[in-house]
Amino acid sequence: MDDGIAFQCAFEGSLDEAVVRRLLRHVGALSGDLYRQRKSYLLERLQGFNASAQTRPWIVVVDLDHDTGCAPEAVRNWLPAPSHFMNFRVAVREVEAWILADRERLARYLQVPEARITGTPEEIDYPKEYLINCARESSSSAIRKGIVPTPGGRRAEGPAYLSLLSEFVNDAERGWRPDVASDHSESLERCIRSLQNSIGTFSRESQRQRYSR
Fold it and tell me: How many Å is the Cα radius of gyration of the chain?
């Protein structure tokens, strides 16, 4: 697999960025330009990203939230005619569900029993809230203080929520395993398969162009 192919990337937040970068490493690709913006902005710019994806690989990841019933429906509504190298993927219902899908490693990281973490993360309405509630039961005070919001505070998550979960996602040896997680998350499995297909297609077309000169 060609590890020199760079994908232009767009996503909602810093945790999404960690997930996207990890997925690209998993499939043997690189991250190019990065666009981190709110979901509404990404959807507004989606047609422009799609035009760029006629000639270069793109990955755009947004959360499904509760906008529609399922990810394929959201993809059809938001981008009915994706370009050749566009990977527009929708996490069900939030990117945290993809992280929850590696329940063994996440349980070890959060220091909670594996049975505490669901084996069907895409059935959860609010994966972020679910993950935080798992962390409430951690035997580690650092996990509890970092991920769980302060009582009476204004934040929906703890002060180290993003840094701790990004650390877990980025740790290729002891952290999140996209291949394992994809066995328990259909939207993640489709994302990985789409990236792999794009890499193969882009590599073949690049070779054909070189030989035709």
Answer: 18
